């Protein structure tokens, strides 16, 4: 066991959505220290250009590497879709986990008819990253992607069961349902909060929640690299954000599923 | 007439919404040169903290002052709500126009029952800026403010007539209608695109579109300061943005009402 085992896992997102991944990591890997960065001053990324997303993402990775993380978890589909390769180059030998790889592999294990749907931000859909990740394993899988830009603001407004959200989901799922996909990847960390409503609107489709599959992939990668923390001490969690807006605590805790403490503000760029 | 008359008017916003104000300025003041800055890399501001909004806004003003503008038009309600005073300090003797002041004065002229509603972003509503601007002229006016965070993404999705948008507007207008306001300020530059739908949902309420009133206020301020451009040459329009995302052209032209040319990218901060 090397000195690195006690080092934290670095998890990052454009905002608070990545806290759903932190939550899954806390449950799956209860002894690991975690440092989180959410770029709340510049959120959302999903409607911005590839160059801008890449530039912002590399600033975050630089910040996390200054915290001597032992692994990086890209907890934002948009960042993973656009900047994964550059992040891997910066990370060197360090394991880099991506919500997209984890989600793609989980969907491939789930599908029976080899027909997978993806809902995500416009930038993630346009990047074609899920299709690439899935086709790398099985080139014969059919994939239908749908940009769903309104779901993030609906979740942030807290309208998780609202009629407006139901109609929006229904509209977005129309092509998915018409095309008989049997497995739907929730390609944005905000979407797991809409699972109850989506299950009602698409009862015959299996939903892939990449926060859970990313936590599992992280556990496997750390184990494989002999980097699991064997300490039985209480883990240390640190949360950095580039802005602390109104209602941040409320929204953040909804994603994390527990109280948010030790938040520090840090402006990048 | 001084040397300053040929200088451009500086107009700015957190993103593309301020182009509705540019459009109104082009119509009201067809001989004026205009330089626009939209902070598309960090949009939206309306859900961010006051400190962050102020910091970003002053960076924009600094950029516009380097372009030797003769007047500043704050074409973003959130910026006007939070950073107006600091911007005025930076601007020195230069006229500074604000969509909030213009909207407040137009609403006061419109209301018959002295009961005004405001719909705006969360930050604008929480700043209480409209109430302050209205009460400075008439302390007896009753004001009902409602944060409507979903309307910006609905407009950007282009769902201007969609059933989902109608239900969302209906939900947000419930307290406004119940309280019998007779005049509603559209306190965000995205909202004028929803005027047709809002007129159907609130047929007895007068809607105040601050882009038009801001253009009028700008014309008066320039005239008063003897700064109107007397040149009959074709005016020069320059558009700077901090990011050029997918569909920028489409969305921008929807707001501007004409083709968008001479767009340059400029990162601040």
From TrEMBL, chains A, B:
GO molecular-function term, one example from the UniProt record: glutamate racemase activity
Keyword Cell wall biogenesis/degradation: yes
Record: residues binding substrate: 13-14, 45-46, 77-78, 189-190
A biological-process GO annotation: peptidoglycan biosynthetic process
Residue ranges that the Swiss-Prot or TrEMBL entry lists as coiled coil: none
Active-site residues from the entry: 76 (proton donor/acceptor), 188 (proton donor/acceptor)
EC number: 5.1.1.3
Pfam short name (any one): Asp_Glu_race
Pathway: Cell wall biogenesis; peptidoglycan biosynthesis
Keyword Nucleotide-binding: no
SUPFAM superfamilies per record: Aspartate/glutamate racemase (SSF53681)
InterPro entries membership: Asp/Glu/hydantoin_racemase, Asp/Glu_race, Asp/Glu_racemase_AS_2, Glu_race
Swiss-Prot/TrEMBL catalytic activity: L-glutamate = D-glutamate
Keywords: Cell shape, Cell wall biogenesis/degradation, Isomerase, Peptidoglycan synthesis
Family per record: Belongs to the aspartate/glutamate racemases family.
Function: Provides the (R)-glutamate required for cell wall biosynthesis.
NCBIfam families: glut_race (TIGR00067)
The protein's name in its UniProt record: Glutamate racemase
Lineage start: Bacteria, Pseudomonadati, Pseudomonadota, Betaproteobacteria, Neisseriales
């Amino acid at each position: 066991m090397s000195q690195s085992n006690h080092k934290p896992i670095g998890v990052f997102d454009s905002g608070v959505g990545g806290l759903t991944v932190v939550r899954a990591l806390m449950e799956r890997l209860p002894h690991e220290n975690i440092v989180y960065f959410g770029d709340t001053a510049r959120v959302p990324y999903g409607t911005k250009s590839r160059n801008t997303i890449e530039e912002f993402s590399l600033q975050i990775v630089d910040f996390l590497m200054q915290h001597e993380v032992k692994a990086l978890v890209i907890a934002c589909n948009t960042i993973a879709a656009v900047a994964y390769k550059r992040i891997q180059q910066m990370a060197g030998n360090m394991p880099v986990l991506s919500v997209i790889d984890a989600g793609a592999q989980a969907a491939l294990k789930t599908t029976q008819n080899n027909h997978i749907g993806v809902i995500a931000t416009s930038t993630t859909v346009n990047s074609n990253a899920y299709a690439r990740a899935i086709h790398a394993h099985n080139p014969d899988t059919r994939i239908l992607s749908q940009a769903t830009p309104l779901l993030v603001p609906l979740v942030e407004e807290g309208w998780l069961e609202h009629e407006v959200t139901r109609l929006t989901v229904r509209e977005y799922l129309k092509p998915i349902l018409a095309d008989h996909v049997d497995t739907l990847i929730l390609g944005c960390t905000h979407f797991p909060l809409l699972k109850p409503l989506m299950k009602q609107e698409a009862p015959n489709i299996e939903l892939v929640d990449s926060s859970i599959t990313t936590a599992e992939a992280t556990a496997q990668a750390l184990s494989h690299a002999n980097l699991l923390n064997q300490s039985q001490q209480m883990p240390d969690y640190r949360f950095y954000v580039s802005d602390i807006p109104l209602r941040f605590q409320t929204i953040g805790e909804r994603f994390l599923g527990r109280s948010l403490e030790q938040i520090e503000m840090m402006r990048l760029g």
